[in-house]
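Supplementary Text 2. Reproducibility record for the structural model of the 234-residue chain.

All settings were left at their defaults, and a single model was retained for analysis rather than an ensemble. We include the record here because the model underlies the residue-level annotations in Supplementary Table 4.
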Amino acid sequence: MNHLYILSFWSNLFMGAEDAVFLFEVLVRTVIMFFIIITGLRFLGKRGVKQLSIFELVVIIGLGSAAGDPMFYKDVGILSSLLVFIIVIGLYALITYLLGKSKKFENLLEGKSVSLIEQGIFAVDNFKKENLGSDEFFSELRLKGVSHLGQIETAIQEPSGDISVFFYTDEETKHGLPIMPDSLDQPLEHIHTTDFYACVFCGFTEEKIPGPAGSCSNCGHKHWVKASNKVRIK
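Retained model, structure tokens:
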């Protein structure tokens, strides 16, 4: 009895409710859907594969769902999945056409590029609009070799979510807000030594003398850290 139970357990685990004959059907279905996927992606073009916007990501997810079910569900026919492919690709072609015709429609569907740093200082109003935490943003910058904001002339968040960074030359690098881990953990409200200091909130930098740090003339906040003027290591 135990032997039969064990056999039944492993059979259900690997085969489910289907019989062995269905494995061959799964093979045939998978091969067919594989070539349908390849054909669909060819219709989408290289942009659909390499630079996914939110709209294109929805298309890929839709195609993946349509392709996956008929591979191993008996009650899902390949023709119905093929119809889904045709509809999704048709909608993609239509929307891509409209994107090329209307800039407003493109901005509505895919968003637009937003400047987050300008001349080494946060574009505070723009940054607030984006769903992006400062730690996440600093991590993105560090991956690009940035150690402080004074190295950056402009940083732009693209519609894809990527961050484009344009750097100052080594000679043009200014004092800026350091973004290394823990560099903002001990902000100052009182200055002890004359040096350049950066506003923790917006990155505005100025030289200060010993005494009360005062408010930032750019954003009004009162917390400062010592600025850095290191050049980038390339």
